[in-house]
From TrEMBL:
It is found in: Cytoplasm. This is Molybdenum cofactor guanylyltransferase. It comes from Paraburkholderia bryophila. CDD domains: MobA. Belongs to the MobA family. It catalyses: Mo-molybdopterin + GTP + H(+) = Mo-molybdopterin guanine dinucleotide + diphosphate.
């Protein structure tokens, strides 16, 4: 059965350390007067039946940010900021739906049809995970693994993977039937890694 909006819980991944931004909470940095995470929430909300925000700092601020979307705040159960897989696990454990749609907090231009394309590919390929690729002008393909649609039944396997000390997203995906979905607009998946990049985008 093809996943539809009511079967999807959206997850905004905002639990990182923001090291390339000097340790600031990336999702709370503003673009055009609004926190980056708010831009992502606005684009995910119409695509999902419920919303979660993965945040390991400033939970109250994120709760206020997510309130207009009835978003729930979840935190890593593993110590030490172990990476995006820990955020995914928190989302998979907390979702009350069959599928989880994840996106990072620093991608304010993510596609409004992200869920539709990933759900179609997942259904067509009978996959457990659908994720994103783009191709640049030189023909180089890039994988954007934290943009993903996942079956929430994968939670136990991911927990075991993390308990074994593993941290690489692609290595975990390789354990399951994963389909890569090509999107034509690579700019939609542009993520902001530094305060300079944020400043540049503000002026664009």
């Amino acid at each position: 059965m093809k996943p539809t909006r009511e079967h999807l819980t959206g997850l905004v991944l905002a639990g990182g350390r923001g090291m390339r931004m000097g340790g600031v909470d990336k999702g709370l940095q503003t673009l055009h007067g609004e926190p980056l995470a708010a831009h992502v929430l606005k684009r995910l909300a119409p695509q999902c039946g419920a919303l979660l925000i993965s945040a390991n700092r400033h939970a109250e601020t994120y709760a206020t940010l997510g309130a207009p979307f009835s978003a729930t705040i979840v935190a890593d159960t593993l110590p030490g900021f172990p990476g995006p897989l820990a955020g995914l696990l928190a989302g998979l454990r907390s979702a009350r739906s069959a599928y989880l749609l994840s996106a990072p907090c620093d991608t304010p231009g993510l596609p409004t049809d992200l869920a539709a394309h990933l759900a179609h590919a997942m259904d067509t390929n009978l996959a457990d995970i659908a994720t994103v690729t783009t191709t640049d002008a030189q023909g180089e393909v890039s994988l954007h693994p934290v943009f993903a649609l996942l079956r929430t039944t994968l939670a136990d396997d991911l927990a075991a993977f993390l308990d074994a000390g593993e941290r690489k997203v692609r290595a975990w995906y390789a354990r399951h039937k994963t389909v890569e979905v090509s999107f034509t607009d690579e700019r939609a998946f542009y993520n902001i890694n530094s305060l300079q990049e944020l400043s540049d985008l503000e002026r664009a």
